[in-house]
Design a protein that fits this description.
This protein has 390 residues and is an alpha+beta fold. The chain has 13 helices and 18 strands. The protein has 3 domains: 155 residues, ATP-grasp fold, B domain (D-amino Acid Aminotransferase, Chain A, domain 1); 84 residues, ATP-grasp fold, A domain (Dna Ligase, domain 1, 2-Layer Sandwich), CATH 3.30.1490.20; 148 residues, Rossmann fold (3-Layer(aba) Sandwich), CATH 3.40.50. It is 37% helix and 24% strand. The strands form 5 sheets. Strands 7, 8, 9, 10, 11 and 12 form a 6-stranded antiparallel sheet that branches. The longest helix is centred in the middle third of the chain and has 20 residues. Bound molecules: guanosine-5'-diphosphate and manganese (II) ion. The site of guanosine-5'-diphosphate has 17 residues, from β2, β3 and β10.
């Protein structure tokens, strides 16, 4: 799950990562009040920042420096409500509903610091680079030597010498060096304790006074660990998510929209992947990933059809369910029921295998729903191909 910059900063601040003051605002008046408040605390430079779940806001015009409260007002009214386009939003952009007004810092140098899981090494990795403000992927391609990494043994955790080595790699000295070591230790602790998948500070900056602070913050949380972080789960902002995916998750379905023409309804992520391969083999392209989970019933099946059919690119639907705990006859009844309630206007290919598959086949054949039934996966693929070329 992604969270906004202001939320990521609140989390990281609570672990001791040094972050300049900031106040989130939803209206221009709130932004002005926020700037007044920061000014009272001594701020003379402000930054007005669009809060959307995408990076690259600066280049898209979503991050603006202001030298006065009046300038904050101007930038706030420009940014709030804008459709911000960045390289991460797609061409349609994302509507800005909130802005963060922060205490602006003077920058002597920008750095990159990020933590994530290195799956190949089965260890978390901390990456730093002296090319701050530039995307780490770009640095990795153009100047890989500028990146320093430390892998964290899960049984030992981050050891101080590793943080020192990273700070040294950034060329820091004196107090800035010490602050950077503390910064990295705090960031790593936050990453681990919140079960994050990414904690990235780009840029971390050194001020002319030699202080190290985070100017930007990105935190992605592991969805599978949110059950033990109820307070973090509440940070979800559904405005930033695809509305169909939100609707699907409300019905216990894992749905991800893709660009293809064959909708698929499957149980289990592994079977979903295999089914998507089969669709490709048949000359189609999957229109979605959809896992109905282990409790497929008439309602979830109907909801799944509804969601798949919202996508106008869908030219055929392949239902591929393995009946283990969920019995095939129940799924078949669900398909028949769903076909009564909604207009499935594209060819429907159904493959039900496993518990009560025979009964399921009989039910489907006896129904007046137009279904191409398949037993083997190859057969299903051929029927999808026939449907697409018909
Ligand atoms: P992003 O473009 O979405 O990654 O947003 P950032 O928060 O990283 O801001 C983009 C750029 O704006 C940074 O790389 C900085 O160069 C600049 N910036 C952001 N905050 C400050 C600040 O407090 N002071 C100064 N001088 N520049 C800032
Ligand atoms: Mn940034």
């Amino acid at each position: 799950m992604k969270v906004h910059e202001y939320q990521a900063k609140d989390i990281l601040r609570s672990y001791g990562v040094p972050i300049p003051g900031g106040v989130v605002a939803e209206t221009v008046d709130e932004a002005v009040a926020a700037a007044e408040e920061l000014k009272e605390d001594g701020a003379s430079l402000f930054v007005v920042k669009a809060q959307i779940h995408a990076g690259g806001r600066g280049k898209g015009g979503g991050v603006k420096l202001a030298e006065s409260v009046d300038e904050v007002r101007t930038h706030a009214s420009d940014i709030l409500g804008m459709q911000l386009v960045t390289h991460q939003t797609g061409p349609e952009g994302q509507k800005v509903r909130k802005i963060l007004v922060t205490d602006g810092v003077d920058i002597a140098q920008e750095y990159y610091v990020g933590v994530t899981l290195d799956r190949a090494k089965s260890m978390n990795v901390i990456m730093v680079s002296s090319e701050g403000g530039v995307e780490i992927e770009t640095v990795a391609e153009e100047n890989p030597d500028a990146i320093h990494k430390a892998w964290i043994d899960p049984t030992l955790g981050l050891r101080p010498f590793q943080a020192r080595k990273l700070a040294f790699g950034l060329g820091l000295e004196g107090d800035a060096f010490k602050q950077c070591v503390r910064f990295i230790m705090a960031l790593y602790e936050a990453f681990e304790e919140t079960d994050s998948t990414i904690a990235e500070i780009n840029p971390m900056v050194r001020t002319p006074d030699g202080d190290i602070v985070a100017v930007d913050a990105k935190v992605n949380l592991d969805d599978n660990a949110l059950f033990r972080h109820k307070d973090l789960a509440d940070l979800r902002d559904i405005h930033e998510e695809d509305p169909t995916e939100v609707e699907a998750s409300e019905h216990g379905l894992s749905y991800i929209k893709l660009d293809g023409n064959v909708g698929c309804m499957v149980n289990g992520a592994g079977l979903a992947m295999a089914t998507m391969d089969i669709i490709k083999l048949s000359g189609g392209e999957p229109a979605n990933f959809l896992d109905v989970g282990g409790t497929a019933n008439a309602e979830t099946v109907e909801e799944a059809f509804r969601i798949i059919l919202k996508d106008e690119n869908v030219e055929a639907i392949l239902v591929n369910i393995f009946g283990g705990i969920v019995r095939c006859d129940r799924v078949a009844k669900g398909v028949i029921e769903a076909a009564k309630n909604i207009d499935i206007h594209v060819p429907l290919i159904v493959r039900l295998q496993g518990t009560n598959a025979e009964e399921a086949k009989e039910l489907l054949e006896a129904s007046d729903v137009e279904i191409e039934s398949a037993v083997l996966l190859k057969e299903a693929a051929d029927k999808v191909e026939a449907a697409l070329t018909a």
